[in-house]
Amino acid sequence: MPCDLAAAHLHAYLDGELDAAGAAGFERHLQSCAECASALNSEQTLRTTLASAQLYEPAPTLLRNRIHAQLPARPSTRTPFFRILQWAALAPAILLAIFLGRAYFESRANTDVLAVAAVDAHLRSLQPGHLTDVQSSDQHTVKPWFDGKIDFAPTVTDFANDGFPLLGGRLDVLSGNTVAALVYGRRKHIINVFIIPSSPRISPANSAGVRDGYHWLSWQHNGFTCIAVSDANRTDLAQLRTLFQAP
After folding, report:
1. For residues 191 and 166, is the Cβ–Cβ distance under 8 A?
2. How far from 127 is each of 20, 120, 184, 217, CA to CA, in Å?
3. Which residues contact 219 (CB under 8 A, 6 or more apart)?
4. pTM tops 0.70, yes or no
5. From CA 231, how far away is CA 122, in angstroms rounded?
6. Helix (H) or strand (E) holding 210
7. Using an 8 Å Cβ cutoff, are 155 and 222 in contact?
8. What are the tens digits of pLDDT across the range 86-126?
9. Which of 16-25, 78-87, 163-172 bottoms out in mean pLDDT, i.e. has the lowest?
10. CA distance linking residue 116 with residue 207, whole number of Å
11. How far apart are CA 137 and CA 124, in angstroms?
């Protein structure tokens, strides 16, 4: 069972009802409480799945054509055994369609959950005093700051010459996972880039979307999953992604 703190604050945190101090305190608690982190992840997955679920999905054209080709044009006088053989021949195609459909929706759910959490974390970071834990435009200052605080080493690069100056970094939490957040400027906009090692559970496809007026863009590079969030336009985020993926 989740601990008492989750029961008291979990839904308020998800609904954005906690103030900045309360949200930050709950996120610190998540880092040391596996039960609360699991409960948060389950609740976010449930909410996202219910919000984006499509209860009807048309069968692929190829599958429909194959099924129609096997159906008799008029009432058949063939034996029940022959009909069983017909359906047995179709079984591999049906199972393949079910498998591919399940894989698609699981991948989409992973993406949606992380994207929702990233936008929420971006909004929290805009509160006074929450944007950076280490404020510096020097990548050789920001990168070492993460040493010992997380179990991976994110690549940190200043793209000031390309119009994306590095402003600093901080630790954050997405769906119960501690992540590195790099903060960039773009004209008068703030861009958060959340970085976490890719894994079978955290492997969203490259995708993009809009939530609450904020653009988000996700990609994978060198074993990491990255999600950029900002009120800057999608073209700016795509340009920053290209800079991250450059050799």
Report:
1. no
2. 7, 12, 16, 22
3. 206, 225, 226, 241, 244, 245
4. no
5. 10
6. strand 207-211
7. yes
8. 656 666 665 654 544 444 434 444 446 788 899 999 999 99
9. 78-87
10. 13
11. 21
Q: Tokens representing 242? A: 């290209």
Separation in Å, CA 51 to CA 55, 116, 175:
11, 12, 17
- For the chain, how many residues are written? 247
Q: Any idea where the domains of the chain sit in the sequence?
A: 1-54, 57-247
165-177 tens-digit pLDDT: 999 999 999 888 8
Structure tokens at 235: 């073209």
Superfamily of domain 57-247: MucB/RseB, C-terminal domain (3.30.200.100)
Q: From CA 73, how far away is CA 101, in angstroms rounded?
A: 29
